[in-house]
Amino acid sequence: MRSFPRRNRTATATAAAVTAGTTAAPHRRRWLPLAAASALVLGLGTTAAADTSGGAGSESLAPAPHAASAHARATAADNPCGFVASVPADRFKGIPAFDAKKAARPFSVRLHTSQGTVTFQALTAAAPCTTFSFRFLAQHGFYDRTHCHRLTTQRIYVLQCGDPTGTGSGAPGYSFNDENLTGATYPAGTVAMANAGPNTNGSQFFFVWKDTKLSPAYTPFGRVTAGMDVLLKIAAGGEDDQNGPGDGFPTLPVDIHRAQIVSN
Questions:
Q1: Three-state DSSP state, 129
Q2: For 7-16, how does the pLDDT look when each residue is reduced to its tens digit (9 = 90+)?
Q3: Are 254 and 238 in contact (CB under 8 A)?
Q4: Domain coordinates of the chain in residue numbers?
């Protein structure tokens, strides 16, 4: 099967902003900065220094919504997850309306990729809002025909996916609150949300392919149950250092053909 071409990240993000009819700066990328790394140029017109203090506010593994209201979280009983619109949106599928009964239903995700299938169990009890959002997006085909755009192989060990633009700044048109962070750790097999700061979750997520020490700032919402060999193969292939040593686009293209929801 064909691989998705690499995109000019700055151009793509800028075009998205124009298409959305806004003159606002392109989305901030959702990144996990390399611990103890020097300043990293994140692109998209922004330069940020990696946080070596372990503070949650500066670490981000992927993109975040850009709406001014992204941090003005709804707390009403009818929106316990704090789902809030953000612009611009990529592949907009609507904003989920949280349903506690549906959110409690257990499920697994089979991610069919060009490198093999990775399956993970959704942690619906620990992260009901995050798993509800992921299921919503997957069932609407949001993740289909996208690719994993970032692999890190030094200090932190993750494969980042979930951005339909492939730029690290894509978003589904909404964001929502963090959860399941108390005492959070990131051993191999963890699936967690990437973000650009507190309560900026969207569609981007990452797999931890080797035990990684991170501050508890990224919502863990899944555990890999099959396909760790696929993740290790991708990691062994390396990356192109586009974002700095040990941080770039995977050398082995990781195209997501389908994100399949399997009820348990």
A1: helix
A2: 334 333 333 3
A3: no
A4: 27-263
